[in-house]
Structure formats: structure tokens, C-alpha cells
Amino acid sequence: MNKTELVEHIAVHADISKAAATRALDSTIAAIRTTLKEGGTVSLVGFGSFAVTKRPARKGRNPRTGEEIKIKAAKVLKFRPGKALKDALN
Predict the structure, then answer these.
(1) Range of the domain at 29
(2) Is 9 domain-assigned?
(3) Can you give the pLDDT of all 90 residues of the chain as single tens digits?
(4) Could you tell me the pTM of the whole model?
(5) Residue 32 contacts by C-beta under 8 Å, 6 or more apart in sequence?
(6) For the chain, what is the domain count?
């Protein structure tokens, strides 16, 4: 499912226009993005939790040359599905 299909699904099931569904989806995504950028977590009961973790710098190897390289530290997005979502899939 892509964004257009999701907007259409929201519009049909919430009985609102596609424009309103697009605004609602964009607003939700913006709120999640802002919260995660500030270091917070987003928990949607029954769906799951989004959180940002830090991955430390490490050494790696260039597979082509075998040369050792430094890999920078990075922030990584983690998603943990909720129990209701897990149960719905099984």
C-alpha cells in the first residue's frame, strides 16, 4: 500500500474527503517525525512504538578491497509492534 492508497482507505472508512484525509495523514506523519527528532518516542496502543536509538561508531571492511574503514555513529529508527498487531497477523 502506498500513500495514495492509504489516503483513499482513510477517506472511505472515515467518511471524509480525500483532501481532508491527506491533511490528516500528513499531520500525523509530521507529528511523529517532530517527536522522534526531539528524542521522544511515539506509542500507539495496539499498533506499536517508534523510538530513536543511537548506533555507535564502528570499524568495517570495504568488501571490494578488504581495506578497513570507519563507519560513523548514527541515529536509527526502531519500531516495536504492539500485541494487538502481532495477534492480528497470526
Answers:
(1) 1-38
(2) yes
(3) 999 999 999 999 999 999 999 999 999 999 999 999 999 999 999 999 999 999 999 999 999 999 999 999 999 999 999 999 999 998
(4) 0.77
(5) 42, 50
(6) 2
